[in-house]
Each structure stands twice: as structure tokens, then as C-alpha cells.
Amino acid sequence: MLAEIITIGDEILIGQIVDTNSAWIAQQLNSAGIRVKQISSVSDDRQHILTALKEAQERVDVILITGGLGPTKDDITKKTLAEYFQVGMIENAEALENVKRIFAKYNRPLLEVNRQQALVPENCEVINNHNGTAPGMWFEHQGKVYVSMPGVPFEMMYMVEDQVLPKLKATFKLPFIIHKTILTVGEGESFLAERIADIEDSLPPHIKLAYLPKLGQVRLRLSGYGENQDNLATEVEHYAEQIISSLGTVVVAQEDIALEKALLDKLESSSKTLSVAESCTGGYISHLFTQHPGSSKAFLGGAVSYSNELKESILGVKNETLWQHGAVSEKTATEMVQGALQNFKSDYAIAVTGIAGPGGGTDEKPVGTVWIAVASAAETVVRRFTFGNKRKQNIERTAITALGMLNTLLGNL
Amino acid sequence: MLAEIITIGDEILIGQIVDTNSAWIAQQLNSAGIRVKQISSVSDDRQHILTALKEAQERVDVILITGGLGPTKDDITKKTLAEYFQVGMIENAEALENVKRIFAKYNRPLLEVNRQQALVPENCEVINNHNGTAPGMWFEHQGKVYVSMPGVPFEMMYMVEDQVLPKLKATFKLPFIIHKTILTVGEGESFLAERIADIEDSLPPHIKLAYLPKLGQVRLRLSGYGENQDNLATEVEHYAEQIISSLGTVVVAQEDIALEKALLDKLESSSKTLSVAESCTGGYISHLFTQHPGSSKAFLGGAVSYSNELKESILGVKNETLWQHGAVSEKTATEMVQGALQNFKSDYAIAVTGIAGPGGGTDEKPVGTVWIAVASAAETVVRRFTFGNKRKQNIERTAITALGMLNTLLGNL
Q: What percent of chain B has pLDDT above 70?
């Protein structure tokens, strides 16, 4: 089963926005067993859209289209689809109700241009848009399925999860696929592969293992394909357990979640708290934690001690430590993490201090030198790293490495 | 002049990575006066790549290809290009030197598979890769230009800026284009358009004005097209000055930079400092500032006071304030911002406290309720906002709104 994603609109082609929709849709389709053959971004141009549709139906079975459904003149997806299918346009009662509902909710008058949002090609089945006025549309034509959706991410996402994926599964009678993700941190692909080589060799042909590496973390994804959902789940779980017990503490989570979310869950389930003291990461570690709902249950907060004065006043780093050893030193990192534990009254703390660059490096401490400390009341671990010379990457790698060290410290908490 | 961007490789098609390369390339091409007609992401499949190339050359003049240049078996871009152009492969001396240089630098033995990185289709002109072993390649074929580059972002970016763009400008004798960006914050597109309607109407046909809105900010971009670079620069500057003086303090910067970077520049040029006290944004505002090189000159740091205890201990918010008014209140925001000024000894401070959601809302203070305070020794401004019910958006909107309020407070600093 092959699919193509077509995004329509100029914002992507002039580089004003990054196309995050397509990556998200591709993930969803892949998880359902539909392979994405091509992603095409085209302009709001009639002939160009017609050509893209024609090319796509020659290579795939399912064509998912986003964008170009707004009420303004430059949005021409609907009428171009009608031309492509050689049908007329009709007003859809359900879509009109939805437009009226949304205008009533915001107490705005319904203009003719808004009413036209309910006009759709007459061969389509309308997919209701709970979050906006532009209806989604499902077409079946000469053995292929076409789905047109708005480009607004959350309108599109809701439609895909709630309506499009279930309908695709039903239409194409896709086999059951069960995924199980194991999140690891701190070891590379080749190390992991060696550790679980025996298990990997013993996998039956209908269970696949994929390594998905990303910035110091590797996700291991087991995918089982089959007819009997219950047996499949048991079988996948069996191999997952073998892998998890072989890998030990590098495993952070047994589901597909963010690393910091896994750590928050671990802390919360043991009623433990965390604080941070950030210098070179400048708030990024705190931001990683606090982007997750409910993070306040385990995360108390912390200091962004960018200046030396703040390292002293908020964290209690000694003035003589800063003078004798410098802000980027084992001793400063240690005092920072202990200051966080003490002043912020948390069970665990993370502290980082380093030279993110591009300026500030010396021969002894080049750009990319970072000290990371993690601590509990019982134990403090401090390590030095030398990352690269790119500021953004140094910030990200420092954060992920610190999270990995915290994971090791938490152990079997 | 039209271009197509083709990305080759499965990572994008399975949704493992978001295609940020294409947006970046599209921006660069647009700034040089080359319009991107289509972006296509295709798999590492010989026939699929051949079809994509054939389709692209039917609609555009320039085809920029990224990815599929690694040393492993699944990277087939080079040999597929040779097949497409019906030429053989030869070893390129310059590319081989580059491979040897990089292996010598990291003190690694040169294997046969690495030596093959220097094999290229015989009709290409090699584009040296300063940051990696895979050479870029420039082809001219039947009046069209094809450029193949690695998919690794910084290798590709360096090639585009340093070599590909200058060569495209020279090959196609593109007209001069001068862009001037004016960054505004706090007012919407329609407000701005009304304020500068007269100026916009008076623009000559060879100078265009674009509104590029993004999260509470609008970039106004003047683009001048012409033959004489000096005259054009003077002319664009003339209209820019008119716009800037009409818009007053909503203008933050006269170049295309990030909002927070513009604020840092303003502070630095007046030798003023800033600190922050973040509750609901959880470190995001600090992260925005500290991602910029040199931010430590103006940004001292701050507190991520997620828990009430930290609001008291680091910022000196009164216990009775928290009890009587709650953490999300005018009084708490005021005490936070004044605590930051005092404890962190900065000239300016930002404080935010709110309910990012999805939990924690009440009838009186629904999810999305945020208090933002900005202050100097002389003045404190506190405002209440009600954003939406999406956590990530609440964090971003709070941050941008706080930056806008700081901009107003800074005034003509």
C-alpha cells in the first residue's frame, strides 16, 4: 500500500514555514502499514495541482492533500479537484452547519465568502472539521483514494487521527500492525545492536526491529504484522521483554515518549522532585521538562545562572571557586548542583556549566567544553565533555547528556 | 527563473526527520530572485529518482538535489545521476584530496568504500565540500542546471551560500535584488497595512512589499529589483525610512533577525542588563535569549520558579500574596518582576505567571490565563492575557507577548 502527500500553498515554497505536517502524516501512515512513496509541495496554481495529482495517481494508491482550502481567492484546491474529477460543486448541508456553528460560537456575522466554505465537489464524501470551517473531503476515483484536508496543523491532525486513518484501514483491509517502542539513552546503535544480536536473529519474519537514532537517544521499534491481534501483541511483548532485560539501565521507557517525559514519570511515580541549575543551556533543560503537561508534579524549577553573580547569589557557588577554577570547572558544577539541591529543596538536581560558543573558548577550555553534574542527597556525579563548536548543537547535546546522566542516577527508582 | 528542490532518502518519507533543508534552500533562492516551483521528497530508489528528475526538468530551469550521497549501499544518487545523463563515473582528484584530508584530520584509515566518495559522474563539475567527504556536483545538461548536494544540513548550507548561489547568479545573469526587512511586534497585519497604506500605494512597480506574519510579530519585507545596485539600495532605503517613521515603536529591528536578538542588541548598545522570572513559560524565554551568541553581555539569567516555594525563596514573593491572590495574579507577577530586578541586579526584568494547561484551570482563571510583568527601576507594567487552551501555544504566545512588552518599555533606549 503506497501513499503520496501533496501540500498545496506558497508558504512552504518561499521557505516561510517548514513543512512539519508531512513528517507527521508520514509517521501516522507508516504506523498503519502504508508506505509514503513521495511528498510533493506545489504552488496554488491550477495546472500545477492538476499535474501533481496526475503524477501521484500513477505511482500510489492513496493521495493525501493538505492546504489551499481557505476562503480567499488564492485558495483553489476545491475547484481544481472538481475539475480533475470532472464534476460540479454542490453545497453540503453538514459542512454548512459546521460553518454556522463556528460563526455562532464566536458571534460573528456569516458572509457569503464564508458560506462558500460549504461548497464541495459533488463526488466527495465530507469529513467534518471539528476545529475549523474548511471541510475535509474523501474521494474514491478509478480505484484510488484522494483525501483533501486543511493545512492548519491541528485541524488536519484531528481529521487524520479521528477519521482518515480509521477509514483507510477499513477501506484497504490493512493487516494488524502492532508497534512497541523502547527508548534508550547514552549508547549508540552499534553497541545496542551487538548487545541484542541474538534476540534480533531469533525474530520471526513477521516481526521487524528498527533502530531510530536521534541526538544521543536510540528508539528501538518492534513492529509485528499479522492477522490475530491478541497473539501478535503477546508475541511482540515477549521479544520486547527480552530486549529490555538485555539492555538494562540504558532503557528509559517502554513507550514512544520524549526522554524528559520518561524521567518525569519515573520521578512522579516515586514522589521525588527535581530542580536544575543551568548555565550554558540557558533554560533549555527547564523548557524540555516544562513543555509537558503535569511536569509541575515532579519539576520544581531552577536557576538560569548565566552570570557569575547569579551562580553565587542563587546557587551559593563560592566566590573563590569561581576565581580559582573558573565558571566552567568540576568544582563550580559540583557547587551548582549541591546549591540547587539545598536551595530548591529537591530530591534530585542537574547542573550544567560550559562554553556553548562561538566565543569564549581558550586553549585549555575550548568551545564545547561542558561540565555536567547530577546529584541526590546520597550521591553526586560530575563529568566533563567536549562537544563541538556549534552553539545550538552544544546546547542540545549538553541537555540530552544531562538527562542521560540523571537516568543513570535514578537507576531502578 | 524557476527551481525545484528534490530531497532523496527515506528518513523524510517515514517521518523520522522534518525536512528543514528545503525551507532554508527555498528562502535562499527566493532572496536571489529564483522562485521555487516544487519541492519533492523521493525514496532511495533508482527508477523513482529518474522519474523525479525527468518530471522536474519539464517544469523548471534549476534542479537542486540533496541527500543519498553517503558511502553505504542504499545511497544511489551519484550512480543514478550518471545513468540519467548517460555518462560513466570517474575518480575526481580534488574530491579524493578532500576525503584524504578529512581522514587524516581524524587519524582514521582510508578504506576502499571511503575512496569511492571521490567517484563522480564524468560530466560534472565538483563542488568542494569543506565539512564532509561527499563532494557536491554541478551539471549543465540541455539548458538546465542540476546541483547535487549532501543532505547533512551544515554541509549543504555551506555549499549553497559559498558556491552554489554565486554560481547560479553568474550563470543566469540574475537581476539585482535588494531586500530590506523591518521587524514589528504587537500589532496585526491589517493594523500595519492601514498605517502605511499611503506609502504602499506610492511604491514604484519594481519595489514590492510583503507582510510575513508569525506569532505576534510581522516582518515587512521590501524587495527592490533592478539593474543599478547603488540606486536601488538608496531607493529601497528611502521607502524603508518612511515606513519606519510611520510605525514608530512597534518597529523592533531594521534587519531580518529574531525578536529577542533585536532586544538583546538594544540592551547591549546601551549597556543595560536583563533578567527573567518564569513560571508558566518554564525556561522558554531564557532559552530564546541564550540561544544567541553573545547573549551573556546583556542577559544575566533568571529563575524558573515553577513551584510556589521557589517563587518565595528565589524571588521574594510574599507568602501571603500567594495565599491571598494565588500564584497567577497581578500581585504575584509584580512581586516576581521586582524580585528579579532586586535579587538579580539587572536594569530590566520580565516576569510571567499563568496556567499553561491543559490542567489547572478554574472558572475564574481558565487555562490560558497569564499575567506578564516587565519592569525597570523607574516603571513596572503588568497586564493580564487570556490565551487559548493549548499548552505549547500558550508558552510561545506568553513569551512573544512578554518580549513585545519589554520592547515597549525599552522605548527609544
A: 100
∠ Cα A365 A371 A372 (to 5°): 165
pLDDT at site B200: 93
How far apart CA A148 and CA A12 sit, in angstroms, is: 17
State pLDDT tens for residues B306-345.
Answer: 999 999 999 999 999 999 999 999 999 999 999 999 999 9
Segment A105-115 shows an average pLDDT of 84
Query: For A231-237, which contacts have Cβ atoms below 8 Å and span 24 or more sequence positions?
Result: A232/A176, A232/A178, A233/A178, A235/A204, A235/A207, A236/A178, A236/A180, A236/A207, A237/A180
pLDDT at B182 (0 to 100): 96
Q: What residues of chain B, 251 to 280, have a C-beta less than 8 Å from chain A?
A: 275-276, 278
Residue B348: predicted pLDDT? 98
pLDDT at B232: 93
Q: Grid coordinates standing for B243?
A: 515606513
Confidence grade of residue A113 (pLDDT, cut at 50, 70, 90):
confident
Contacts 24+ apart (CB under 8 A), B264-270: B264/B289, B264/B292, B264/B294, B264/B295, B264/B297, B264/B298, B264/B299, B266/B410, B266/B413, B267/B298, B267/B347, B267/B348, B267/B410, B267/B413, B268/B294, B268/B297, B268/B298, B270/B413
Inform me whether the pLDDT recorded for A72 exceeds 80.
no
Q: What is the mean pLDDT of residues A126-132?
A: 93
Q: Name the CATH topology of A176-253.
A: Alpha-Beta Plaits (3.30.70)
What confidence score (pLDDT) does residue A17 get?
A: 86
Which three cell numbers mark A287?
523548557
Report how far residue B315's alpha carbon sits from residue A164's, in angstroms, rounded to the nearest whole number. Answer: 50
What pLDDT was estimated at residue A46?
94
CA-based nearest residue to B195, from B254, B246, B249? B246
Superfamily for the A2-172 domain: MoaB/Mog-like domain (3.40.980.10)
For A278-320, the three-class secondary structure string (H helix, E strand, C coil) is ECCCCCHHHHHHHCCCCHHHCEEEEEEECCHHHHHHHHCCCHH
Burial bucket for residue B143 (CB in 10 Å: 0-12, 13-18, 19+): exposed
Query: Is the pLDDT assigned to residue B413 strictly greater than 80?
Result: no
Task: Indicate the domain borders of chain B.
Answer: 2-172, 176-253, 261-410
User: Given A19, A286, A345, which is nearest B304 (Cβ)?
Assistant: A286
Tally Cβ neighbours within 10 Å of residue A31: 17
pLDDT band, very low/low/confident/very high, at B181 (cuts 50, 70, 90): very high
Pick the CATH number of A259-410 from 2.60.200.40, 3.30.420.10, 3.30.830.10, 3.90.950.20: 3.90.950.20
Of B27, B290, B300, the CB nearest to A310: B300
The B residues from 128 to 187 touching A (CB cutoff 8 Å) are 154
What architecture (CATH level 2) is domain B261-410?
Alpha-Beta Complex (3.90)
A 351-390 near B (Cβ less than 8 A): 356-359, 390
CA B263 from centre of chain: 17
Contact criterion met (CB < 8 Å) for B286 and A304 = yes
Cis peptide before A153 (omega within 30 of 0): no
